[in-house]
Amino acid sequence: MQKNSKRNNNSRVSDIELNSVDAEKGKNESQNNFVELLPPEVALKIFTHLDIRSLCRASATCWSWNYTIRNSDFLWKPHCLTVRAVCRREIDDDLESGYSWRVILLRNYQKSKVKHEWLSGRYSNICSPISLPEKIMYPMDVDTWGEILEAELER
């Protein structure tokens, strides 16, 4: 009879351990997605402290983060205003056209990087088109090239 009670005790212990492992597993899964556990205002406040690269990476983490970040246009506005320092005309035109801050940033981010390098004179002393790095040949409109030419003439 003692053997049966030992077996029953062992099975109870293993059942308790399994249940606690299942509980921990569920707990860990919900802890991995803290955005769903936090009030939306707190999660968004955390996301406002991310730079562009981190914000994009966070949006690729899971569906709920992507949805939250993609649909919270105010998260993109400060980054877009930073790009506006270089691409004022382009950003203002996109705002007038009714684009969201996220779309405006997508449309102008790479252009702002290239335009900034041109305007800062990084390519002023290049002697031939062969010497130009391929990454700087971003398609830009006539007005942008006019700004770059004016900056070059002032140097």
TrEMBL record:
Keyword terms of this UniProt record: Cytoplasm, Ubl conjugation pathway
Entry-linked InterPro entries: F-box-like_dom_sf (IPR036047), F-box_dom (IPR001810)
Highest taxon listed in the record's lineage: Eukaryota
UniProt keyword annotation of Cytoplasm present: yes
Pfam families per UniProt: F-box-like
Keyword Chloroplast in record: no
Subcellular location: Cytoplasm
Domain F-box stretches: 32-79
PANTHER family, A to Z: F-BOX ONLY PROTEIN 48, F-BOX ONLY PROTEIN 48-RELATED
Subunit structure: Part of the SCF (SKP1-CUL1-F-box) E3 ubiquitin-protein ligase complex SCF(FBXO9) composed of CUL1, SKP1, RBX1 and FBXO9. Interacts with TTI1 and TELO2; when TTI1 and TELO2 are phosphorylated by CK2.
Name by which UniProt lists this protein: F-box only protein
Organism: Galeopterus variegatus
Gene: FBXO48
